[in-house]
């Protein structure tokens, strides 16, 4: 309202006690300016006279003085004032209103001038110009009884709050191939877009390849830019940096080019530098104000000099990724370069942008400036025009650089954020589940990227087509962007990446680890529903632990209900989901591993082994054991409060049995990988069947008789577990505990049938494991051997299990002997 209807705004203020406020100020101060006072000319003449009349009753004479100033100077001064005092945010301006701010300020300035002219008998117009402390006092003395010296003192006091500092200079860094690239038009278009922000004050550094420096295209562009620098007040200076020629066959070292250009910009007075490309489209006419305000916020919040940090553009073609960073000059003060000297050999043309973003991320000094949006038409998540050379291992050394160089530059006691990324491999691409994960509330002291790795290209394309209502062909990169945009609705930073081929869960998690540079990574499955406070619970625990803790095991709860289906109750009674819910087991405060459906690890260079099945099974045990080993004996802690709900796997009883069968084919590879955690035991039912099949061929047992033997053996397997396997405990597992507990119990017949099905699932699992051993030719490592899934954490587990198998095997042998004697 102050912008579009200043008259209405000042009258509303005046009617609610504003006039009394002016009189009160006049009684206590000789000079009053800015704020609502600057809008007094929009009041009717009668009310201005009323102000003077009331003041006289207190023996105070008020004189209204207006300054004559160029409208554009007024607009720029007002814009600067809005930035310094964060008025755009405080006024709640929308993006469209921010785009129109300078237009509205200009319109108000013209209205203000017209009102002043209408009040010529009541308001004195002074053409105040020049230095506020040198020329203004003499002007003001002419309309008052106050001496120039007193005016000078008064202006010195109010000037601290009301005068604007010099505008910072933005350094625009640009490099491109010139010949045949329409360079002139691209540069002109880019600079024109930058100048749409009327406050923008910038210098340009152009990187030209050595082999093009003397070409006609370079000469024309240089002359054009020199002319622009002379004509445009916003453009402070123009500089050229020569990019050294590249040996034939070598990739373009764009990072070194950026480094040279940034140093040139900072050396010539730039307060921050923007790394831009010739193929971008700026979609923000107030980008300068947005970055200026962001640097002010960082400076005020951290108590550091202005120019500390590295905010980045909102790249609409690559959402959430810091493709185009804006680096403050304090970075140059720290490193005397853009790329730290000791890292310059690491960066060729990839990964510098996420590196420098992560360098400041723990202090939240590298935010995405959402309003400053652009689109990268060729780069982004598309293939670049040069061969990519990744920076090897930057994720492993970036936090060392933070601790050694950035952290000492902020005051002691400055809180640090936890960097925690969430990695979700997805084959199913079920949008509802992904959305519930990507909408998690991120705590204030945690910085999180949600990294979704799609392992099913066709499913991604199908989902993207549905989300966009587009029936035309969609590329994979476009589909990634569509899903990314959809999942980012909650305001979190999302990255969607799609594998070229179906690689499996382990390879997808590895790709997620390669994408992340966080201190910690949280692995989640793509078919679960997390509690809203999942990250809050993990974040709270991370604040408490020391370096000896390498991971946190969350709770993966399977749903309980009074009407739980028989097949699902059997899954719970089989104990095959024991490790999913291990976090709430009192005896497992320090588990050796946890399922990757919900487990957090300190980020290391350890990766998931690809020898396990694509669909999973064993890779979680393997990874946890190798991470703890690599850390020199670190531990895992249970965090039962960090809870997700995992629905039961879909399908019939036989589908579930098949699921466990396939699951165990892979996890049997653990036996050979970790023989120290294996022990000998008596043959289980599948192993016994395998042995007796050989005997059947030798003895000549009929098929029907042999089937009876198998049935009797399965019954024996069930009875031993029923009698000696703590049947009541299995029932309690079905009921659950705590807030998930099902209060209504089912009949004993229900539980007995569920117990039978549970043993069927276990036998299916054992069959799959035996098949895996045979398929890998791991007979001596796997057959008649068992893996201690508790890794020594549960006293007596191997001996109790071996005792149970001994009882079963004795019955198997008895049945078989009886069968042979009948022949």
TrEMBL record:
Protein origin, superkingdom: Eukaryota
Presence of the UniProt keyword Cytoplasm in the record: no
Record carries keyword Glycosyltransferase: yes
Residue ranges constituting the Glycosyltransferase 2-like domain according to the UniProt record: 475-603
Annotated keywords: Glycosyltransferase, Transferase
One Pfam family of this chain: Glycos_transf_2
GO molecular function: glycosyltransferase activity
InterPro entries per UniProt: Glyco_trans_2-like, Nucleotide-diphossugar_trans
PANTHER family per record: GALACTOFURANOSYLTRANSFERASE GLFT2, RHAMNOSYLTRANSFERASE WBBL
Family of this protein: Belongs to the glycosyltransferase 2 family.
Name of protein: Glycosyltransferase 2-like domain-containing protein
């Amino acid at each position: 309202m102050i912008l579009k209807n200043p008259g209405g705004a000042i009258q509303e203020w005046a009617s609610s006690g504003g006039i009394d406020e002016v009189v009160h100020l006049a009684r206590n101060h000789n000079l009053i300016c800015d704020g609502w006072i600057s809008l007094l000319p929009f009041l009717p003449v009668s009310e201005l006279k009323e102000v003077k009349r009331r003041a006289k009753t207190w023996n105070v004479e008020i004189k209204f003085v207006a300054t004559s100033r160029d409208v554009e100077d007024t607009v720029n001064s007002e814009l600067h004032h809005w930035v310094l005092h964060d008025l755009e945010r405080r006024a709640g301006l929308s993006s469209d209103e921010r785009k129109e701010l300078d237009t509205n300020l200009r319109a108000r300035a013209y209205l203000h001038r017209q009102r002043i002219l209408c009040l010529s008998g009541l308001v004195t117009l002074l053409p105040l110009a020049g230095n506020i402390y040198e020329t203004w006092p003499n002007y003001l003395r002419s309309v008052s009884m106050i001496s120039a010296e007193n005016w000078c003192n008064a202006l010195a006091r109010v000037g601290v709050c009301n005068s604007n500092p010099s505008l910072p200079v933005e350094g625009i860094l640009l490099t491109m191939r010139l010949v045949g690239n329409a360079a002139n038009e691209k540069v002109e278009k880019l600079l024109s877009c930058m100048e749409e922000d009327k406050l923008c004050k910038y210098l340009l550094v152009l990187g030209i390849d050595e082999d093009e420096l003397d070409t006609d295209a370079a000469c024309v562009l240089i002359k054009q830019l020199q002319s622009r620098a002379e004509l445009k007040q916003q453009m402070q200076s123009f500089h050229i940096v020569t990019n050294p020629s590249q040996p034939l066959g070598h990739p373009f070292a764009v990072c070194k080019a950026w480094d040279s250009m940034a140093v040139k910009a900072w050396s010539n007075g730039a307060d921050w530098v923007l790394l831009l490309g010739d193929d971008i489209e700026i979609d923000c006419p107030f980008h300068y104000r947005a970055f200026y305000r962001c640097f002010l916020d960082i400076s005020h919040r951290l108590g550091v000099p202005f120019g500390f940090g590295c905010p980045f553009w909102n790249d609409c073609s690559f959402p959430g990724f810091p493709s185009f960073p804006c680096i403050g000059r304090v970075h140059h003060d720290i490193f005397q370069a853009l790329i730290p000297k000791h890292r310059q050999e690491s960066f060729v043309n990839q990964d510098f942008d996420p590196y420098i973003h992560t360098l400041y991320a723990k202090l939240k000094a590298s935010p995405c400036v959402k309003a400053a949006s652009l689109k990268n038409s060729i780069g982004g998540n598309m293939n670049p025009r040069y061969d990519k050379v990744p920076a090897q291992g930057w994720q492993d050394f970036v936090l060392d650089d933070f601790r050694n160089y950035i952290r000492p530059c902020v005051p002691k006691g400055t809180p640090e954020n936890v960097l925690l990324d969430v990695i979700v491999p997805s084959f199913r691409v079920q949008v509802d589940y992904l959305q519930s994960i990507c909408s998690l509330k991120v705590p204030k002291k945690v910085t999180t990227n949600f990294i979704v790795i799609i392992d099913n290209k066709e499913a991604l394309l199908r989902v993207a087509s549905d989300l966009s209502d587009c029936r035309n062909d969609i590329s994979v990169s476009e589909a990634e962007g569509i899903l990314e945009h959809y999942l980012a609705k909650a305001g979190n930073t999302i990255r969607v990446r799609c594998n070229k081929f179906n690689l499996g869960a382990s390879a997808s998690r590895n790709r997620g680890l390669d994408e992340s540079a966080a201190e910690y990574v949280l692995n989640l499955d793509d078919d679960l529903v997390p509690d809203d406070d999942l990250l809050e619970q993990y974040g709270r625990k991370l604040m408490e632990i020391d370096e000896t803790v390498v991971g946190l095991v969350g709770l993966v709860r399977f749903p309980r209900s009074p009407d739980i289906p028989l097949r699902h109750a059997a899954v719970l009674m089989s104990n095959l989901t024991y490790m999913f819910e291990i976090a709430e087991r009192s005896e497992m405060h320090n588990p050796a591993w946890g399922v990757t459906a919900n487990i957090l690890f300190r980020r290391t260079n350890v990766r998931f082994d690809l020898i396990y099945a694509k669909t999973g099974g064993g890779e979680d045990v393997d990874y946890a054991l190798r991470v703890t080993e690599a850390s020199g004996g670190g531990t895992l802690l249970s965090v039962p409060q960090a809870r997700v709900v995992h629905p039961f796997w879909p399908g019939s009883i036989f589908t579930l049995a098949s699921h466990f069968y396939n699951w165990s084919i892979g996890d049997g590879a653990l036996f050979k990988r970790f023989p120290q955690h294996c022990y000998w035991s008596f043959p289980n039912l599948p192993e016994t069947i395998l042995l007796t099949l050989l005997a059947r061929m030798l003895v000549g047992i009929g098929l029907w008789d042999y089937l009876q033997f198998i049935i009797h053996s399965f019954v024996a397997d069930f009875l031993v577990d029923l009698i000696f396997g703590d049947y009541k405990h299995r029932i309690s597992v079905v009921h659950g505990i705590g807030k998930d507990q099902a209060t209504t119990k089912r009949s004993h017949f229900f539980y007995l049938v569920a117990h039978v099905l549970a043993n069927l699932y276990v036998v299916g699992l054992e069959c799959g494991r035996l098949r895996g051993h045979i398929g890998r030719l791991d007979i001596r490592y796997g057959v008649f051997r068992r893996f201690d899934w508790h890794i020594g954490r549960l006293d007596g587990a191997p001996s109790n299990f071996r005792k149970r198998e001994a009882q079963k095997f004795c019955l198997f042998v008895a049945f078989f002997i009886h069968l042979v004697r009948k022949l």
